[in-house]
Every structure is written in structure tokens, then in C-alpha cells.
């Protein structure tokens, strides 16, 4: 009986690890897709790749690639420990310093008990308590991929309603992590970088057995 319990625990751990990797990978492609679709960097700075049954584009700029790699290295560690509740990509005008777009991905970890939240702190990143829910029914990889495809198609189609970005822009990544998360020195405290008087549009979500990710974009209304 004890052996059976151990086997069950190991199975759950493997499932959670695979799910965490799926979510982290989704975030990596989301950053690249947003940067390309919103024209934050020139189109010639991106290389086509096949992912999720779609033709995706990823940055080939060494500096951007290095920055995203550093983000993903830490994000993967936090995801494996179920420390993440939100992942945010903020686009900011270089000229005015104003935040013009904010892509927010809310992460629910199924079956995770609620925690006592300590004082709020945003470490290029912010501390928040993840949503909790019962475990989702088993899904096939094909089903998960189809849900992810739908989100990327929406991100691509968002250019039809998002205002054109004026001038040069840059981007920042915020991660809302649990208060007890280990935070590397290079990750600084941050505010939420909200869009002032912005419009919000809820996009699709996807889920695995262990995680659910909801997507939303906020943007500055034109004057």
C-alpha cells in the first residue's frame, strides 16, 4: 500500500513537471510573438520556426535572445515549484516612458492549497497567491496544442483592434511570484506597470491537467 502511494506521488510529480514546462514554453513563444506582431523590433530581426502546428517567429537579435533566455531560466525554476501566479509583458514608449500595452497571463495551479500571502512586493515580478482549483480531467497533447494555437491566432489577430504603436518602444517582463520565492539579485522590485485609463480585452485560455492560463491585453486608448 505504501508503494502504491509512492508511485502515485511520483506520477503526479512527473505530470506537474511536464505541465510546468508546457506553460513556461508557452510564455517564451508569447514574448516573441508579441514583440513581432506589435513591431517592437524590426521584422527582419525574427526567424521563422514551426511550433504548435503553426509558423511562429522568434527573435534572432542576440541581445533580445539573451534577455529572454535569462527570464526563461528563472521562470522555469519558479514554474516547477508552482510559485507563479501571473506573467506579464509590458510595452513602453522610449520617448515618453509611458506604458502603452500590457499582456497579462494569469496562472492557476490546480490542486494547490491557498497560502497566506505576505506583504506585497513586486520583484520584476510581484508576489501574489495563485488561484486554486481541483485537478482538471486528463487532456491529450493534441487538445492542449489546439487551445494554445487559438491563443496565438488571437494574439496575431489583435493587430486589428490594438492602436498602432507610435515611435520606438521597449519591453519589460514582470513575474508575480509567491512571497517565499528565491529571487536572484538581477531581478529588481517593480510596480505593476498598469496602463492608465486603459482598455482591456480578455482573450482565450488553455489548460493542462495541472495548470490553467488566462490571457488578457490592456492598451492605451488613443487621445
Question: What does this 3D model show about the protein?
Answer:
The protein has 223 residues and is of the alpha+beta class. It has a single domain, classed as Cell Cycle, Spindle Assembly Checkpoint Protein, Chain A (2-Layer Sandwich), CATH 3.30.900.10. The protein contains 3 helices and 9 strands, in the order αββαββββαβββ. It has helices at residues 2-37, 62-80, 141-157, and strands at 46-51, 54-59, 84-93, 99-110, 125-126, 131-133, 169-177, 199-207, 211-219. The strands form 2 sheets. Strands 3, 4, 5, 6, 7, 8 and 9 form a 7-stranded mixed β-sheet that branches. Strands 1-2 form a two-stranded antiparallel ribbon. β1 (46-51) and β2 (54-59) form a beta hairpin. The termini are far apart. This is Mitotic spindle checkpoint component mad2.
Compute the number of strand runs. 9
Q: How far is it from the N-terminal to the C-terminal residue, by CA?
A: 67 Å
* CATH class wording: Alpha Beta
Largest sheet: 7 strands, mixed
Estimate what percentage of residues fall within beta strands.
25-35%
Which fold does the CATH topology refer to?
A: Cell Cycle, Spindle Assembly Checkpoint Protein, Chain A
Using only CA atoms, what is the Rg? 18 Å
Count of alpha and pi helical runs: 3
* SSE series: HEEHEEEEHEEE
Structural class: alpha+beta
Oligomer: single chain
Overall pLDDT, averaged?
80
Protein name: Mitotic spindle checkpoint component mad2
SSE order and pairing:
Elements: H1 2-37, E1 46-51, E2 54-59, H2 62-80, E3 84-93, E4 99-110, E5 125-126, E6 131-133, H3 141-157, E7 169-177, E8 199-207, E9 211-219
Parallel strand pairs: 4-6, 5-7
Antiparallel strand pairs: 1-2, 3-4, 3-7, 4-9, 8-9
Organism: Neophaeococcomyces mojaviensis
Protein name: Mitotic spindle checkpoint component mad2
Amino acid at each position: 500500500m505504501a508503494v502504491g502511494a509512492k508511485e502515485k506521488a511520483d506520477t503526479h510529480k512527473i505530470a506537474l513537471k511536464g505541465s510546468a514546462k508546457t506553460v513556461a514554453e508557452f510564455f517564451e513563444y508569447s514574448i516573441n510573438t508579441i514583440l513581432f506582431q506589435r513591431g517592437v523590433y524590426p521584422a527582419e530581426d525574427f526567424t521563422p520556426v514551426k511550433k504548435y502546428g503553426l509558423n511562429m517567429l522568434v527573435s534572432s537579435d542576440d541581445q533580445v535572445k539573451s534577455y529572454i533566455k535569462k527570464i526563461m531560466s528563472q521562470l522555469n525554476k519558479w514554474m516547477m515549484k508552482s510559485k507563479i501566479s501571473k506573467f506579464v509583458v509590458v510595452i513602453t514608449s522610449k520617448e515618453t516612458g509611458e506604458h502603452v500595452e500590457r499582456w497579462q497571463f494569469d496562472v492557476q495551479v490546480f490542486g494547490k492549497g491557498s497560502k497566506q500571502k505576505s506583504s506585497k512586493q513586486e520583484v520584476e515580478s510581484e508576489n501574489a497567491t495563485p488561484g486554486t482549483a481541483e485537478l482538471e480531467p486528463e487532456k491529450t497533447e493534441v487538445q492542449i496544442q489546439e487551445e494554445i494555437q487559438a491563443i496565438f491566432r488571437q494574439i496575431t489577430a489583435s493587430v486589428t483592434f490594438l492602436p498602432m504603436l507610435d515611435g520606438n518602444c521597449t519591453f519589460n517582463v514582470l513575474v508575480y511570484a509567491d512571497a517565499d520565492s528565491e529571487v536572484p539579485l538581477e531581478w529588481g522590485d517593480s510596480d505593476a506597470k498598469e496602463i492608465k485609463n486603459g482598455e482591456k480585452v480578455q482573450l482565450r485560455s488553455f489548460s493542462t491537467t495541472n495548470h490553467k492560463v488566462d490571457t488578457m491585453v490592456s492598451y492605451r486608448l488613443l487621445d
